[in-house]
Prior knowledge:
By secondary structure, the protein is an alpha/beta fold. Helix content is 42%, strand content 21%.
Amino acid sequence: MSATIEVQPSGKVLIKCFNPATGEPLRELEGHSSEAVDQTLERLRSAAASYNYSPVRERVKLVRRFRKALVANLDGLIESICSETGKKRPEALLEVFAAFEVMRYQANIAPRTLRSRYRSSGILIHKRGYVAFRPHGVAAIISPWNYPFVLVVSPLVEALLAGNTVAVKPSEFTSLTGLLVKQVFDEATGRPELFELAVGAADVGQQLVTSPLIDVVCFTGSTRVGQIIAQVCAKTLKPLILELGGKDAMIILEDANLKRAAKSAVWGGFTQAGQVCMAVERVYVMASVYDEFLQLLREETRKLTTGNKPEDAIGPITVDFQYDKVQAHINDAKAKGAVVETFGEPDGQHMPPTLLTDVDHTMTVMTDETFGPELAVMPVESEEEAIRKANDSLYGLSTYIFASNERRGRRMARRLSSGMVVINDVIIQYGLASLPFGGFRFSGLGKVHGKEGLLGFSQQQSVVGTRFPMPMELWWFDLAHKTYGLLRKFMKWWYR
């Protein structure tokens, strides 16, 4: 477990942080009280009164100073991520890389993405209209424990670039990285009033979501919690962005490069012990190559070791309740007839990689998000069956297709109920900062990254002006009866 929550008799919330890989205590934090959260939001609201109207280029300068300071603190960031989550250093480095790339790209495109844009006036040639992009005001970002850096920093900079002040609630299990981000931001920008942390458990997140001082909510986490937040926001029509769970499928066609597909499946399923929303969890393989692929998959999985040594490939499950969930999914599959192959022995929070075969869609391991180091593999007879099986899910985050002909993969992508499709690779979509990131159905609402990420933290405002003034409009009371016949004839000619 990476943290424990203790409510003291005085009502104070004490968060005790641990390294989940070793059990070593890291630090004790005091969670924010309800009064402290309210004071934080009042400060952000006050700062928003001027920051909301700041020039976009000034916001870009602020984000670039922030990024440069984070780069200077790279080693400290990696150490913080590893100690809180148990990640391996290469995994932590990739997390920081993804955040830096989003920061670079979004700062580059913000001026042109958020500038006002004139639109055609159509037949009303004496009018002119444009669309302006305005910040919501104060944004709340609620981030999860599996990516404590990138899932704070990426939405944070998008919200700031759009002109919002920001309250961030990091996961109570990984708050220390959030504190480090805040420290670097304050020192680099000298604008601590623009970004505040609200540290605590679920009650702090609930207070942010329900507060009238919050104008837009961005939540990354489980579908169950996302549904609760959506219901709360619906009462006041508060805008929200939800980046939720996935049950991502991989489809392997008969002409695929099977060696690459096997290596991709192993990395896509077991990196960060499978605690990735985009992780491969279900693999559908054409029956004609199923046995060959499965043999390659076993060979690649045998190479992996789980533990605390630097050379070990897989780290621990970060939180103990997630360990229990993964084990429950595996046990359910085994009870229903699945063949379970485990490559190693459990040790504390370390769970060895597991392959499951002879699976079907009655098993939770094929229908519910597992979020752990397991891969379930099923043969299919046709491309049609593979698509149908991949779409047989409440989720719709990512799907991975392996085929020698990329055009065939693109054709299949049009039929997949998935917000993101990757051909001949896995989990790379987060690294392409220009592409919107988000899923369909139970995988969420709205997008981050790309211009869509900036626009998600903005409101669109239509403004109409006049090119040349007229004494009165043709449809006003004084002229309406006189121009009726002429306008009627014009409409029949113009719109026929």
